[in-house]
Amino acid sequence: MTNDIKKVFRNNGKSFTGLRSSLLDILGAASSPLSPKEIRDSFSLNKPDLASIYRNLSLMESLGIVDCVDLGEGFKRYEISRPESHRHHVICRSCGKIEDVHECGLQEMEKKIFRTTGFKTEKHRLEFFGVCAVCRK
Amino acid sequence: MTNDIKKVFRNNGKSFTGLRSSLLDILGAASSPLSPKEIRDSFSLNKPDLASIYRNLSLMESLGIVDCVDLGEGFKRYEISRPESHRHHVICRSCGKIEDVHECGLQEMEKKIFRTTGFKTEKHRLEFFGVCAVCRK
DNA sequence: GGGCAAATTGCAAATGATTTGCATTTATGC
DNA sequence: GCATAAATGCAAATCATTTGCAATTTGCCC
């Protein structure tokens, strides 16, 4: 599977570097989307420059390898793209925990938008904010 | 109706200033959410300082008078809050036009999230990206 | 309407995320 | 291995947003 990823880079004239490999490892191991700073902090040694992290996240986003998640915090987060399981998030305003929401019931809504306005949706962004089960106790 | 708005300010110990009145006029006349800069550009004369615009948008958001919309452009947009018609947006990647989507079929999804995870949602953010009817021609 | 205290504004400087230029280093094709 | 193109680190720039503070405006009482 790493090979499939390598091909994506190769097929687009990009190298599969040590940094890129590490970034993917870190994002792959994360249980919720990470910010560029959090990603940098995940390196114990030889922390890469933030500029390189930003450049790589942009690149990998354009290659469809990672997805950008904006929770309105003033910075962006990134997660591994898993097209087979389109994801949204729920964010707890009390503890800040971010959980995934796997299913997405928006197809019906997208169809309706198309029928009524002619707008052809290609992607959407959906995040929920509230209080998680633990914090509600 | 302006009086109702005035009361919101007064009841929270805030003045209803000329700037605040103008900001509400501008946002009220806009057909899609505006950025702080766009708002400033709407003034022909005596353009207010961006800092004041930012301060007032934050204030009015906390008072529930305006809503913040983040389309992932790297800055925020604001629109008059109309609780009676909860809105989302569709953004055309070709011409940049932003249209409203009035109905929202997410209650079912929020119920399901609550049933399965115990997460109590309080609000959500939903935007669609794609191509509008005009640009598809 | 005038006067005062509190709230608001403008301006300049600070902050924080993200981007860019460029010299150095690393990866790829031969 | 070598030459070349791509990637990285570092410093400086950029852009949205925030903050401190002095000057101005507003709300309120007379």
Describe this structure in words.
The structure is a homodimer of 137-residue chains. Chain A has helices at 2-11, 18-29, 36-41, 50-62, 107-117, 133-136; strands at residues 66-69, 77-80, 88-92, 98-101, 120-131. By secondary structure, chain A is an alpha+beta fold. The first copy, chain A, folds into two domains: 1-81, Winged helix-like DNA-binding domain superfamily/Winged helix DNA-binding domain (Arc Repressor Mutant, subunit A, Orthogonal Bundle); 85-137, Dna Ligase, domain 1. A three-stranded mixed β-sheet of chain A has the order 4-3-5. In chain A, strands 1-2 form a two-stranded antiparallel sheet. In chain A, strand 3 and strand 4 (98-101) form a beta hairpin. Chain A starts with a helix and ends with a helix. The mean pLDDT of chain A is 90. The interface between A and B is medium-sized, with 35 and 35 residues. The structure holds a DNA duplex (30 and 30 nucleotides).
Short description:
The structure is a homodimer of 137-residue chains. Chain A is of the alpha+beta class.
Features:
homodimer, Arc Repressor Mutant, subunit A, Dna Ligase, domain 1, 3-stranded mixed β-sheet, two-stranded antiparallel sheet, 5 strands, 21% strand, DNA-binding
